[in-house]
Amino acid sequence: MVLMGVLEDKSNARLFYRYLSTVYDEVNRFVWTEEMRAEALGLLGLDRDDRVLDVGCGTGFATEGLRKHVDTVHGLDQSVDQMERAWEKFGKHGRVRFYRGDAERLPFRDDTFDVVWSSGSIEYWPNPVAGLAELRRVARPGGQVLVVGPNYPSNPLFQRLADAIMLFYDESEADRMFHEAGFEEFRHLTHGPAYSPDIAITTVADVPEPDESGAGSAAEAGIEDPAGSGPERRAR
Ligand SMILES: C[S@@+](CC[C@H](N)C(=O)[O-])C[C@H]1O[C@@H](n2cnc3c(N)ncnc32)[C@H](O)[C@@H]1O
């Protein structure tokens, strides 16, 4: 039996972020720092005109880092409360384009993006392998997918706590998830702030050529026509 943490449930996670969004930026900077963001960005080869998607963009902390390297970032999140904070920073219709949506059912056509980034979000996805496969599907062959998640703690007490809350994973579990999601080439970096230098695990994967079976090719909506996925379509 697979045990899931309380926040690996989409409606629980949305409710959680309705409240956390008000203090997210103040709290987050202690566990997901600008230095860590720079280390993760350094794993990518970004060009200014790359099409970049930030899945689970939240209040836009990673989006801000990505935007320093590329002209336009597309940010998607399931929480309008989180995105409202991002709109305050970037505007609602500026160089960051926002979509309300689900990481496990991305509203974009296959092969749309050069780079797909997701930091601090996979731990909330009920089916992380399905989410990773979606990231792979919307990234073009030869592009890159980068995922930052929480590293599995070594202390047994913290392990029990972690398991009860959400997904924490180590390198071997990351290997399994990325393989099952269809990635062949990837590498991991564990990093963190000085007080906990292994708190996060970042994986950067090369997007393989599609297999001949055409698996995972179901398109939903195009990036030029994100009908129904815009954050202004609020459905609470
Ligand atoms: C810890 S925050 C990370 C925000 C941002 N990426 C960063 O680097 O600071 C996690 C975000 O993932 C979003 N999220 C969780 N589950 C999601 C899902 N299934 N689809 C889309 N977004 C999701 C949450 O709403 C939240 O904004």
As a percent range, the share of helical residues equals 25-40%
Gyration radius, to the nearest Å? Answer: 17 Å
Sketch the major β-sheet: 7 strands, mixed
The number of helical runs is 8
What is the annotated CATH architecture? 3-Layer(aba) Sandwich
Order of helices and strands: HHHEHEHEEHEHHEE
Number of strands: 7
- The number of distinct structural domains comes to 1
Strand content: 15-25%
The CATH fourth-level homologous superfamily = Vaccinia Virus protein VP39
How are the strands of the biggest sheet laid out side by side?
3-2-1-4-5-7-6
Q: So what's the overall shape?
A: globular
First-last Cα distance: 32 Å
CATH class annotation:
Alpha Beta
Mean pLDDT: 88
Secondary structural class: alpha/beta
Descriptive report:
The chain has 236 residues and is an alpha/beta fold. It is 31% helix and 20% strand. The chain has helices spanning 10-20, 24-28, 34-41, 61-67, 80-90, 128-138, 156-165, 171-180, and strands at 52-55, 73-77, 96-100, 113-119, 139-150, 185-191, 200-206. The longest helix is centred in the first third of the chain and has 11 residues, at 10-20. The two termini are 32 Å apart. The model is unreliable at 213-236 (pLDDT under 50). S-adenosylmethionine binds at residues 10, 13, 17, 28, 32, 56-58, 61-62, 77-79, 82, 102-104, 119-121, 124-125.
